[in-house]
Write a structure and sequence with these properties.
By secondary structure, the protein is of the alpha+beta class. It has one domain. 44% of the residues lie in helices and 15% in strands. α1 crosses α2. The model has no long low-confidence stretch (mean pLDDT 81).
């Protein structure tokens, strides 16, 4: 049984503010609406909206960074293998797994905050 292909809504994702009602941020693409972020106190909705709209770029940048750093390490032995860098790599691969639906977020577990 093969894995389903990872195919999120195509980038670019755009952010706009909908002034109707209480006002909310809308993240959309050429394919339609991706998310609505309702107003919350302390600019939380603003920060969440910007983070969500940047998701495709962050995902691609992280995948490219991991690929290039692994290639450099294997090809030229250039790269850091300290505990901090290794932990960062593991967390980056875990984040990619979450994004691709290969790893599930469990309530209260690591990565669920």
């Amino acid at each position: 049984m093969s894995e389903p292909e990872f195919s999120p809504t195509k980038a670019p994702w755009r952010l706009r503010y909908n002034h109707q009602g209480n006002g909310q941020f809308v993240v959309e693409s050429d394919e339609g609406m991706i998310a609505e972020i309702c107003p919350q106190p302390n600019q939380i909705s603003d920060a969440n909206a910007h983070l969500i709209s940047a998701a495709p770029k962050l995902y691609q940048a992280l995948k490219e960074f991991l690929l290039s750093s692994e290639e450099a390490l294997m090809k030229d032995g250039i790269g850091c293998e300290c505990e901090r860098c290794e932990k960062a790599r593991q967390e980056a691969y875990r984040a990619i797994g979450f994004a691709e639906g290969k790893t599930t977020l469990k309530e209260g577990g690591p990565g669920s905050a």
